[in-house]
Specification:
The chain is α+β, with helices and mostly antiparallel strands. The protein folds into 2 domains: 137 residues, endopeptidase fold (from Nostoc punctiforme), CATH 3.90.1720; 32 residues. It contains 6 helices and 6 strands, in the order H-H-H-E-E-E-E-E-H-E-H-H. Helix 1 packs across helix 2. 27% of the residues are buried.
Length: 186
């Protein structure tokens, strides 16, 4: 999914964010959620940074170390009570630190651009503004229909599972010699 998000991100460079909620100045969440919605092939319009952060916590895997980031992952610094945060999409690796380019809404031009590096992001949002920096990898969740298709398949049509059950049944019969108190085979 990260690769898909990254390709859509590259195709979104120069997008006018002035027409998005937040009027281009506070449209980082709207811009990123629009790209995520395209990648997930479902409408996703998240206006507020706090809502996007909650959505990411429920629909994405947290990435602990910057060295584990991939292009298309999300970097977010949620707003505090007094300070406006920001969100962007991780781009290509630009150094071994590790450092990456970041694509986000530009406050100055109201366009979606490659306008940050991860090192500059951390310097500004974490050190200067005292905001947290979180990383997420969005995944495409299984639909209910897909889950139901897996649940309906009989065990016999799944050869690996049927082999497993045959082996398990054999071991159950051969363990009749096991110690009944501990359940261990002598």
């Amino acid at each position: 999914m990260s690769a898909r998000i990254y390709v859509i991100t590259l195709n979104s460079v120069g997008m006018d964010t002035g027409s998005l909620p937040g009027g281009g100045i506070y449209s980082s969440s709207a811009a990123v959620s629009k790209i995520l919605g395209q990648a997930l092939e479902q409408p996703l319009k998240i206006v507020y940074l706090s809502d996007l952060y909650q959505w990411l916590k429920s629909n994405a895997l947290p990435i602990k170390k910057p060295s584990e980031l991939l292009p298309g992952d999300i970097v977010i610094s949620p707003s505090s009570r007094d300070v406006q945060g920001h969100v962007g999409i991780v781009g290509e690796k630009i150094s071994e630190k590790p450092d990456f380019s970041i694509y986000s809404n530009s406050l100055d031009s109201c366009l979606f651009l490659k306008n940050w590096t991860l090192s500059r992001w951390k310097e500004y949002f974490e050190k200067d503004l005292k905001l947290d920096v979180f990383y997420f990898r969005v995944f495409k969740p299984f639909s209910q229909q897909t889950l139901m298709q897996y649940e309906k398949k009989p065990t016999a049509s799944l050869p690996r599972l049927s082999s497993f059950f045959r082996l398990r049944d054999r071991s159950t019969h051969s363990s009749s010699q096991s110690n009944t108190e501990t359940g261990q085979v002598p």
